[in-house]
Amino acid sequence: MKIVVALYYYEPYLSGLSVYTRRLAEGLVERGHDVTIVTSRFDDALARDEVVRGVRVRRVPVWFQLDKGAIMPGFVPAVLRAAREADVLNLHMPMAEASAVTLWAGRKTVVTYHCDVRLNSRGILGRGLEAAIFASTRMALRRARVVVTQSFDYAANTRVLRHFLDKTVVIPPPIPRPAVSADAGGLAPGYFRHRAQVPAGARTIGFVGRIVYEKGIDFLIHAFHDLCKRHDDLYLVVAGDYQHVAGGSVKSSLMRYLSGAEERVRFVGRLSDEELDAFYRFVDVLALPSIDPLEAYGMVQVEAMLAGTPVVATDLPGVRTVVQRTDMGRVVPRRDVHALAQALEGVVYGGEFETRTPDEIFHRLDLGETPALYEDLFRKVVDGAPV
Questions:
Q1: Which positions ≥6 away from 359 have C-beta within 8 Å?
Q2: What topology does CATH give the domain 2-174+368-383?
Q3: Residues 223-257 pLDDT 10s
Q4: Counting CB atoms within 10 angstroms of each CB, which of 45, 67, 103, 235 has the fewest?
Q5: Measured between alpha carbons, how far is 279 from 275 in angstroms, rounded to an integer?
Q6: Cα maximum dimension of the chain
Q7: Shortest CA distance to 164 belongs to which of 192, 196, 137?
Q8: What does R_g of the chain's alpha carbons equal in angstroms?
């Protein structure tokens, strides 16, 4: 099949959505399909048209950034030109232009609904833009042949998607099986301890993700402060991009919360895949303290579990299902510093979690067949069969 995938940000931009889409696109190419990505040229240094690991990537010039969005007058025409020759169009949302695209390509459109939208600007302009995007989203979902979500728990609790459950199917995210055993990382065992300058024998809480408001890192820092009063061997290692983030990073504002704990907090920046694997194996627990439904699943928590590391995650729809189904950690209320600290302490010092093998994790979360499930869905759309 000829498949066109449209989204705002693709590799080398790093986010859960871009990682999901890259893994899906490359998985479909491996299965013999022709995949074209239409996305933003968010960095002028990027090529407008290139092939990356078998996936054709077409980047549309960005006129300017507005909040988290890229303003690209050429985006809709570029998507529609590519879709004209395609069998299937796969839109990865949120996407403000979705209604315009589906007006012309609705019959061949499969929407992957990653999350609701929430802009940083909370003034009149921000609320107006959000309302416009939600209206566009409703029209797009109405016109699309089928909608994909990562969990029914998330779909049933969204602002828009919950009204279209009759045309929604659940496909778990594309998470690869670990290439190495749980006790042998690709880098030397002491690599990350040396990189983060954490003393031998110390305990570590890890966070990985973009350094943005919705990740709730400020609540994690406050919880860490609380734990430092009782444990002098505990460190916090924060990994993630804070230099190239749509909508801006909150790293500078986080620094003011560090008073009294600066010596035991490490910001290590963006990590390569090999470094990320070493990070998961190094930390004693991964914290996912997200506070906003922009977090809809949290693939990083599964990756940590596959490396043998437990997780403490917040009680967000979709996110909570990973720990609930594996028992490999704890789920805590959002924005509750005390509960977060208590859960982290219980996991790190009390061993309050179950240990699962990668096979058990894949089985409990129904992982491993994402490209094949999309392939089957796309064929039904092409054949006009019920989905």
A1: none
A2: Rossmann fold (3.40.50)
A3: 999 999 999 999 999 998 766 655 556 666 666 66
A4: 45
A5: 6
A6: 63
A7: 137
A8: 21
The two beta strands, 55-61 and 34-41, are: parallel
Closest by CA position to 229, among listed 260, 263, 267: 260
For the 191-365 domain, the top CATH level (class) is: alpha beta
Q: DSSP for 164-190?
A: GGGGEEE-----PPPSS-TT--SS-TT
| Token duo for residue 196 | 């983060």
Q: Alpha-carbon dihedral of residues 93, 96, 99, 102, nearest 10 degrees?
A: -50
For β-strands 265-269 and 234-239, DSSP reports them as parallel
What are the distances in angstroms from CA 260 to CA 66, 120, 265?
36, 29, 10
Two tokens at 14?
């790093």
Structural domain boundaries in the chain: 2-174+368-383, 191-365
pTM above 0.70, yes or no: yes
Nearest Cα to Cα of residue 9 among 117, 76, 84, 95: 95
Q: What is the end-to-end Cα distance of the chain in Å, rounded?
A: 17
Distances (CA, A) of 90 to 80, 282, 302: 12, 37, 25
User: Would 2-174+368-383 and 191-365 be classified into the same CATH topology?
Assistant: yes
> Residue type for 29, please?
V
CA 129, CA 124: separation in Å to the nearest integer?
9
Residue of 77, 61, 88, 67 whose CA lies nearest to 2:
88
